[in-house]
Amino acid sequence: METDVPWRYLRTAQDWYDSDQFNPPKVMKPQFEQVTVPVGESWSLLWRELPELPFLWHYHPEFELTLTLNAQGQRYVGDSLEDFASGDLVLTGPNQPHTWAATERPDASLPMLAVVMWFSTDWLERALASWPELTALHTLSAQAGRGLKFSDAARAQVQPLILALQAQEPALRLPTLLHILTLLSKDAEARPLATHAYTPAGDKVGARIGKILHRLHAQPTDTVSAPALAAEVAMSVGAFHRFFKRHTGMTVLDYVGQLRIGQACQLLINTSRPIKVIASDVGYGTLAHFNRQFLQRKGMTPRAFRASYQGATA
Fold first, then answer.
1. CATH code for the domain defined by 7-192
2. Fold of 203-313
3. Selected residue with higher pLDDT from 216 and 295
């Protein structure tokens, strides 16, 4: 039976369970996310301090370990929906759609913090082949396909290690991550979330869209034509436009705009650069154009966005 409740309003667990839409892959196609690994490193760390966690239903071919602090809201992994609180620690496997959505901070004087660790199947397989001491990670990786919620005891054990990652140099982060995963593999109380692993696209399709998104993420401030991108993946321009929108939910122009505004948000939060300089840094020719695009996508001006964050962390 169809429901008249739009997806964007299904914000609470009860709303979602009461609707006839308790299966996010059928309701809203998850967007492919390109995970970029820094040069000279083998995995990627993201440290996100934000006023709130927006609903961004997505997937990627990498494993993802996420620790969320000073936030409470809803966590979506595959067909699982649960309320979560500060200290939530979850491992999702390759291509399992997921997102965290939260607007409440237990400590209003501090931002929400999400520490995200991404590593590929190839990275894990190389580690297992090289070091037999890591055999326990075989089971952990297999269970992660459905998503794993770790116990409070396990989270308390690894949280200091996770929070230490940001200050470590890359050479020290690697053994720390392996230490974290080894400890988590011993958590007998970890529980699966989704009813099954989920793969939204085959390897060939994933490689093709991945190539396109890697190009866009590598140089989001560049002006890249659709014909040039289509040629890179041996597609006609028309087929490319349909292919890109089918797997990302938006046009190339909208996707690049999202990347640029996302970069701008990070610069507004983490630097004191003038807004006019940030507009230029992320690829906008004029401040007026940047302001219009930012307002359209974020619902507020860049100045208001920066002020709201500074007010949240004051």
1. 2.60.120.10
2. Arc Repressor Mutant, subunit A (1.10.10)
3. 295
Domain range annotation of the chain: 7-192, 203-313
C-beta separation of 99 from 140 below 8 A: no
For 237-295, what is each residue's pLDDT tens digit?
999 998 888 776 678 888 788 778 877 887 887 788 999 999 999 889 899 999 999 99
DSSP string for 140-200: HHHHGGG-EEPPHHHHHHHHHHHHHGGGS-HHHHHHHHHHHHHHHTT-TT-EE-SSS----
Name residues whose C-beta falls within 8 Å of residue 309's C-beta, 6 or more positions apart in sequence: 50, 51, 111, 268, 269
**What is the mean predicted confidence (pLDDT) over 129-135?**
92
Question: For residue 184, how many C-alpha atoms fall within 13 Å in the half-sphere facing its CB?
Answer: 29
Q: Count helices and strands (H / E) in the chain.
A: 13, 11
